[in-house]
Amino acid sequence: MVGIRDVARKANVSPTTVSRVLNQDNTLHVSPETKQRIFEVAKRLDYDIHKRNYVKKRMPSIGVISTISKASEAKDVYYKELRMGLEEEARRLHMGMNRIYNLSDHPTEWKDLDQLGALIVVGTVTKQSINDLLEQNPHLIVVDNPDIQQQVDMVYGDLERMTKAVLALFLENGHKRIAYIGGYQVELDELGKKTITSNEKRVRAYLHFMNDHHLDEYAHSLLGNWTEEDGERLAIELIQQADPLPSAILVGSDPMAIGVYRALKKFNLAIGKDIMIVSFDDIEMASKLSPGLTTVQINAKSLGKAAVRLAVERIERIRDEPIIMTFPTQLIVRESFIPK
C-alpha cells in the first residue's frame, strides 16, 4: 500500500510538506511547482487522497503540560530554553500552542484535551497520569522522562550515559574518591501533587558506576532541592562527614554547582586542584565562575523543537508507531576539571 512517505520520497519533499499540501493548508509557503509535483506524484502512485481524508480546514493545535511552575521556569535556564524551542518550532510550522498547563501551579482541571492535535508533556509525571492522558489523547510526546514505560513518543538528553562517561574520566585521571551532589526525582500527578524519590537518573547512574567498579567504600551521594542553596548546604555536609575528603565531585546541575563552589571556598579548598568539579547544563554563569566550571552541555532548545516535530507527525498521521529520540550531550572542559 502506497503511503505518504512514498509520495514524499518521489516528490523530493518532506512527509509533512506532502501532508499539508494535500490538506490544502493555506498557511504553507511552497511554490506552485512544488504543489503540482506533489499532486502529480500522488496521482502517478495511485495514492488515494480522498480515502485518507486529506481535506481539513485548519491544523490542530498542540497542548503543553509542564511539571515546572511559571516562576521556576523563569529562573531555570534549561527549561526556559526548552520552552523557547517548543514555541519557535510551533511558529515555524504554523501550529497553535496556546493551551499550556503548569502542574506545579496546581491546575484544577484539564479541558478538552481530546480536541487537541497532540500533547507534549515536559518533565516527570506519574505513570497513572500518563495513562490518564493517553485515554484523553493518544498523541502524546514525553520530554525529559526516559523512564516512561508506556508506548509514547519520547525525547530526552542522554544524561545517564554522560554521567558514566564523566565518572570514567575521573577514574582514568586517578580519582577513586568520587562524590555526587544532586537533586531528588520529583514526580507530579495531574493535580500537581508531588512524589519525591531518590531514583533520579544521574544519581542512579552514579551508584551503579561506583558499584560496578568496586568503589562503594568511596561513594557519597547527597540529594536535596535543585538550588544553589542546597548545593552549598550539601557540600558543607559532605566536607564535614567524609574522611578522607573526595578528590572529585559530580554535581547534578550548574545552579547546585555554584553553591558547591561557595562551600569549598569557605573551607579554603582549591577547585580544580584539591577537588575536581563537573556539573550539568552549561548555563552562561558556568564560564564566568572562577575557576571556570567543566559541565555537560544539553541542547534543551533542540529537545523542544524535536518534540514539536514529533507532534506534527502524529497530527498528520504520518506514522502511528512510537519513536524515541535521544539527544547527545557534550562535555565543555574548563578549569574545574581538565582531563589528562
From TrEMBL:
SUPFAM superfamilies: lambda repressor-like DNA-binding domains (SSF47413), Periplasmic binding protein-like I (SSF53822). The keyword Phosphoprotein does not apply. Gene3D superfamilies: 3.40.50.2300, lambda repressor-like DNA-binding domains. Residues 2-61 form the HTH lacI-type domain. It holds the Pfam family LacI. Keywords: DNA-binding, Transcription, Transcription regulation. GO terms for molecular function: DNA-binding transcription factor activity; transcription cis-regulatory region binding. It comes from the Bacteria. This is LacI family transcriptional regulator.
